[in-house]
Amino acid sequence: MRIMLDSNVHDLIAADQAVLRVLRERIAEGSIKLVSTHVQRDELSRAPEPKRAALMAIYGLTENVSTAGAVWDVSSWDECSWGSDEGNASIAALTGGNAKHAEDALIAATASCEADVLVTNETRLAAKIRRANISVKVWSWGEFVASLR
To answer: Is residue 62 part of a domain?
Structure first.
C-alpha cells in the first residue's frame, strides 16, 4: 500500500516510538511504501532543532515524488509537474483562492495520483478533500495506527 503522510503526522510518529518501530517493520517487509513530496520536506525543515532531525528522519523513510501540479512561490520547479486540468482544478478547489492552503492542496492532489491513502491529522483538510471529490482515501491518525497492527 502506498501511503502519503501529511506533514503534521510526522510529529505524531516522532512522539510515538512504538508506532515508528512498527512503521519501519511494515516498510521493511514491503507491505507499506511511504511517498512524499518536497512540500513535506520544506515544511518539516522549518521545525526547530532537535525536533527537525527526528522529523527529517521520518521523511527519510519515504520515496520522493514530484507534486501533481505547481503553485507559484511554493513549488520547487524541478520537483513538480504541471498537472492535468483535473489536478489543477482540485488544487484550485482546495485552496479556495487562499494561497495559505497551497501546501495542503499540493499534498492532497499528489496523494490522489501517487498514493492509496493520505494520512492527516487535520479534519478540515480531510473534509475539503471529500467536498472536492478528490480521489484519495483519507485516514486520521487513529485509522493509520490501526492499519499498522
So the answer is: yes
